Amino acid sequence: MKVLVIRKKDLVKIISEASKRTHEICGFLLGARKNNILEVLEVAFINNVSTVKEKAFYMDPIKMYNTLMYTNRKSLEVIGIFHSHPNSTTPSRADLKYMRLWNIPWLIVNSYSKKYEAYILSNGRLEKIQVILKD
User: Fold this and answer.
1) Which residues of the chain have pLDDT under 50?
2) Among 19, 49, 67, 69, fewest CB within 10 Å belongs to which?
């Protein structure tokens, strides 16, 4: 089972940004993987350029590219994707579709309740991933 390790301050920053917005926020979790442990070392917010931001997210492709180039220079990996939902931590139908393309953990934050969950698609099945907070 995979485990996502994230600093408490980084998770608080994601939750705080999500709770300030009326639309979904999104970005990449950057870090390193050691076997089944995925450690987040940086959080990269990416602009949501969806035409229906209140219901979906679409990451700005130029900002995505720049972030991918940054990870290469810093010897980091994109180890996860994060985004917010206004009233749930469960992946939407659209999330499940894109989780097939980005087979990495997805951290979903509920912008109202401030709860969070992480998931990955494994052999076509949705699995919850344990999130461990560190100082």
Assistant:
1) none
2) 69
